[in-house]
């Protein structure tokens, strides 16, 4: 499929998502809205030429509060995770101002953090803790930035406060992007001075990618200190990345998204 044609289909898919939110979401239950977001995200990554493969077991969407913490490589990360389960993301406030994309993110439950305002951290922490106590699944990228996928940068410990306050479980997740031969690729990386438009076109011109998502064993956030919790989650993802680089098989069998439903 030609990249220009793929881009047109992606733009059409974005508009379809916007119309669904405007016309249907007000009349749907929370469960049905979540299901439609998951289906929509799966369609989006498919249109981008990305095949998602999952290892491990994800948290329940509703149940005990769960905080997913993942390494951050691409603008695709959110959609890849959403294609597997519905989760409420924590994102930088700048994304809220992106045309259409920011509005879609807000309407699908994203919580925005104004990083330039120290006072906003207390607000978002309290809001996250409330959602976790109610049994929701939240997700964030504690590196605070994107990388090319070859490393895991130190996690910001303050982002783990809500999990401790709610005594939720923290779920480390490793995200990798591979080419069609199963080798690591930089095609999906959205970092440094790369613009969103450049990154999107790089993905479309790649000829196809595989997003590998590994859910690692959860970490109970009871007692302890936020710094210890952050370091434990960071180490788990870094070790999983090292194992993947050595070609070590995941601890649990791989499953395609459709096999979990």
From TrEMBL:
It comes from the Bacteria. One of its GO terms (molecular function) is 1-acylglycerol-3-phosphate O-acyltransferase activity. Residues 66-178 form the Phospholipid/glycerol acyltransferase domain. Pathway: Lipid metabolism. GO terms for biological process: phosphatidic acid biosynthetic process. Keywords: Acyltransferase, Lipid biosynthesis, Lipid metabolism, Transferase. The keyword Secreted does not apply. This is Lyso-ornithine lipid acyltransferase. It comes from Sulfuritortus calidifontis.
